Amino acid sequence: LSGSVTFHVDHLPSCWLMGDRLQLEVVLRNVFSNAVDAADGSAPEGKAIHVSALIDPQSHGVTVVIEDNGAGFDHAGLSRLFASFQSTKSSGLGLGLVISRAIAVAHGGQLWAEAADHGIFNLYLPLKGESAHAP
Fold first, then answer.
1. Exposure of 128 by Cβ count < 10 A (0-12 exposed, 13-18 middle, 19+ buried)?
2. Which of 14, 23, 79, 101 is the least buried, fewest Cβ under 10 Å from its Cβ?
3. What predicted TM-score, i.e. pTM, was given to this entire model?
4. Residue 112 Cα to chain centre, angstroms
């Protein structure tokens, strides 16, 4: 299928997060939507997204990593990624990542991307009952 996307999800750790389920869903939907849009359908494996998560006992939080096989970001692209009204989509408002980052921060976490040859987004959230800071 030309429009298909392969999702690979690693075993995710069992943990409890304290947060607003609907707001966190907005963050995940936005990051996954961007990953699907960015994934490279012309790659040998087609559009592919990989999800993993790890608990950091030092920060008492969990980091969810969403990777796609799209072009990724250079350092200059990272500086514009979370700027308001900056979109690479013709119908985009340029607010999705801004809102998503604000939600993550409001939950005591953080949302960031990495410079790489493929798309990498990280969502850090503190575990339930912990006061934690992103690693």
1. exposed
2. 14
3. 0.84
4. 7
